[in-house]
Every structure is written in structure tokens, then in C-alpha cells.
Amino acid sequence: MEYITTTNLRTKTSQLVNELKKGGKVSLIHRSKIIGVIKPVEEPKIFDAEKFNKIIKKLNLPPTTYAQREKIYRSHLMKKYGKGIS
After folding, report:
1. Looking at residue 44, what is its pLDDT?
2. Quick check: is 31 in a domain?
3. Is position 11 within any domain?
4. Are 12 and 1 in contact (CB under 8 A)?
5. Which residues, in sequence order, are bridge partners of residue 36?
6. pLDDT of residue 12
7. Tens digits of per-residue pLDDT, 18-44?
8. C-beta atoms surrounding 4 within 10 Å
9. Within 13 A of 67's CA, how many CA atoms are on the CB side?
10. Can you give the residue range of the structural domain that contains 26?
């Protein structure tokens, strides 16, 4: 199934669900025009804190205090947006 019309959405839902489970994309047609694409939802990646800490340690970044981070952040905002930001 490469396409489905808006009138066939009710009758061919089982075929549509099977196609999405396989990972396929289906074009949605309304009045002889493609108006959209139906595609399966991508699973979000699970955050691994241990892996993240290993990557941070490999980067060997210098430790910064909260005040230093705030100063860097404020200077970045000034460069990007100008003096109007409070």
C-alpha cells in the first residue's frame, strides 16, 4: 500500500496499520491530490547517564562555576540579541 484515499481510511485501516508496523510510509490522497504522508512514529532514544558521563570525561572540559556560566551566557545573549534583553 503506497497510497490511501480519505474515503478509504475507514475501510482499509487494518491494511494501513500493518503497513505502518512494517515501517512503510503511505501517501494520503484527497480529491486526486496528495495532501500528506502518514508515517510511523520514531521511538525516542533512552538517555544513558553513564555513557554521557564517559563522553564528558573524554572531552576534558575545564570546570566552571555558576557565575562563570552565567557570564558566558549573558555575553552570548548580548552578541546575539543586543542590549534590549534584560
Report:
1. 81
2. yes
3. yes
4. yes
5. 28
6. 92
7. 999 998 999 999 999 999 999 998 888
8. 19
9. 0
10. 3-38
